Amino acid sequence: MSGDAAPNLFQQQEANRRRTSWLVVGFVLFFAWLGFGGDYIYYLSTAHAPPGAPHHTFPWLGLVLTAVAIGIAWYGYTTGPEKVLWSTGAREVVTPATDQEKVLVNVVEEMAIAAGIPKPRVWIVDDPAPNAFATGIDPQHAHVAVTQGLLDLMSRDELQGVIAHELGHIKNLDVRLMTTLAALVGVVLLIRDGTGRFFWGGGGGSGESGGKGRGKGDLGALAVVLLVIWVLSWLLAPLITQMLAMAVSRKREYLADAMSAQFTRNPGALASALQKIETSDAPATHLKAGAAHLCICDPLDRKLNDHPGGLGDVLASHPPIEMRIIRLRGMGYAQAKGSDGL
Amino acid sequence: MGSWILLILLVAVAFWAVGAYNGLISLKNQTLNAFKQIDVQLKRRHDLIPNLVSSVQGAMNFEKSTLEAVIQARNQAVQVNAGGPDAVKQISQAENALSGALSKLMVVVERYPDLKSTGNVSQLQEELTSTENRISFARQLYNDTATQYNTRQQQFPSSLLAGMARAAPAQLWEIEDQAERAVPQVDLSMKPKA
To answer: In whole angstroms, what is the distance from residue A133 CA to residue A222 CA?
Structure first.
C-alpha cells in the first residue's frame, strides 16, 4: 500500500519550493504592476498637459511599491511561522507539565521518528474546538500546534493520526508554501481594509483623471482601460489571494492524510479523529480566517466544505470531511485485505 | 553532426550516471541513519527498564518470574547490541524477546489496579508505551528506507552502478520469533469480549 499512499516525496518537495518562489515572485510582480501601472496612467494623463503644468516622468510610485512588496515578502517569508503562531495565541510546550502534555510531546516525538524528520516544536492553542496545524519553513525549523479541545477529545491513537497528518505537511514542505501564503494573504487583507477606505474616500480623484483622459483621443482611451484594470486589480486582489490559498490547500489535505496513514500504518485512527472533529460543535475561539488553510479541518466550519462539487470545489479550503474519511477507511480496508492475503 | 549527437548522448549518460550514483549513496546513508535511530530508541528502552522494574518490584513480589524474565531479556539485549549493525538478526531476536517479556509484564501490571493508580507507575507506563512505539516506528522507517535502497540496487538500470557505489542489500528488521507473533493474541484474550 505504501506504493500508492506515498507519492514521490522529492517531486512534492520540489513542487512546493517552486510554488513558494512563484508565490513570492507573483506577489512582488503584482505590486510592481500596481505601482508602475499607476505611474504609467498618471504619465499618460499628464503627457499632454501644458508646459507649465506638472509632468509625471519619474516612476516613484512603482519603485516605492515594488520595494515595499519585496520587503513585505521577505519579512513574511522569514517571520511567517512566528506570525501564524502569534495570531493564534499558541503557547509552546517546552517541559510538559501535565500527563496530557507529556502524551502530546511523546506522540510528536514518535511520529517524528516515523516520518524521519527532526522533532518539531510543540505548541498548544487554548481553543475548545478540536483542530491542529503545522507551520515552518522546512523540517529543521517546524512547529506543530494542537488545540486544547483536540487533546481533550482524542485517544492516543487518534492523536497520533492527527500529528502524523501535520508532520506529513512538514515533510513534503507544504508548510513553507502555506505559511508564506498565510503571511502574504494577511498583508493583502490588511491592504484591502486600508485601500477600501482610500477608494471609497478618494473616488472623486480617479474619476477626474478618467475624465481628463477621455478628451485626449487614443492615448486617453488606453489610459482609461488601464485605469479600470488597475482599479479592479486593487479591488480583486484580496479575493484572488484568498481563492489561491483555498485552492492550494485543498489537494494537500488528501495527500497529508495519505502520509499520515503511511507513518502510522493505521488510517482508521485518523478517520475516527476526523469523525470526532466533524461532530464536535465547540466553537473556534482562537483560530481565525488567516490561518484557516493551515488547519487539519476548517476552523470556521463553513458549510461550503461539506458538499463535494459545485461552489465548494472553488471556494472551500478543505475537502469535505466525509470524503476524507471514506478514503482513509478505504486505505484501512486495503491494508486489512493485504495482510489477510499474506 | 553525427559526432555532436554522440557527444550529447555521452553527456546525457554521464549526467544520469552521476545522478544515479549519488542517489544510491544517499539512500545508503539514509539506511544507515535509520538504523542508528533504532539503536537510539533501543538504548532508551534499556535505560527505562531498571526504573520500571524498581518501581513495581515492591508490589509484585509474587510475580518474580515475570520481572526476572524482563531483566534477563534486557541484559541479553544490551549485550547483543554491542555487536553493531552486522548483528541485525541477533539484535532483533534479543529485542523481540525483550518486547515479549515487557508486554507480559504490562499485562500483569494491568491486574493490579492499586499499582496502576500510583502516579509513578502510570507515568512509566506512558513512557514505556511511547518507547515501544518509537522503536516500532524507527524499525518501520528503517525497513521502508532499506527496502527503497534494496529496490534501487536491484532495478535496472541503476543496478549497473550498484557495484561501483558498493551497495549491498540491507537486512530488513523482521519479527522472527513465533512467540512474539503470538503476543498480541495473548493480550486480546485478557480483555472481556465485546
So the answer is: 47
CATH number of the domain that residue B83 is part of: 1.20.1440.20
- Chunked mean pLDDT (size 10), chain A, 342 residues: 50 83 84 83 76 74 86 85 85 89 93 92 91 90 93 93 94 87 76 60 41 46 77 76 70 85 89 88 72 75 51 62 86 66 40
Residue-range domain boundaries for chain A = 2-87+177-234, 90-172+247-341
Q: What is the CATH number of domain A90-172+247-341?
A: 3.30.2010.10
Q: Could you tell me if B94 lies within 8 Å of chain A, comparing CB atoms?
A: no
B130 at interface of A, judged by CB pairs closer than 8 A: yes
Q: What are A86's three cell numbers?
A: 502569534
> What cell was used for A324?
476524507
Q: Which of A101, A166, A208, A253 is catalytic?
A: A166
| Shortest CA gap A94–chain B (Å) | 17
Number of domains in chain B: 1
ipTM: 0.75
Which DSSP category does A308 fall into?
S
**B55 is a domain residue:** yes
Whether residues B137 and A107 touch (CB distance < 8 A) is answered with no
Contact A318, A298 (CB under 8 A): yes
Find chain A residues with C-beta within 8 A of B145's C-beta: 116
The verdict on residue B193 lying in a domain is no
pTM for the full predicted model: 0.78
**Amino acid sitting at position A89:** G
